[in-house]
Description:
single chain; alpha+beta; two-stranded parallel sheet; 2 helices; 27% helix
Amino acid sequence: MVRTRPFLDNEREKNGEFSSCIKVGRDNKHISLVRHDRKDERDNKPFGYDQVLDVDSTQDQAYESLALPVVQDILNGYNGVIMAYG
């Protein structure tokens, strides 16, 4: 799973015109790294995930999608780990 974050206020202030370098796929299972210096979409780098949460996702949605199933498994006697980076 990957969760994209919105722009920070200081990122908006540095550059009045900003655009994300990440495009979330319609299926919410893919993201593409967008190259704004190139017009051909084939230059975008796609990556697939089990689930993608976009910039509008909430902390509750992230918990329910990722952590809740692991917590339920732990309570049923299974081992569980959630690793986060970033």
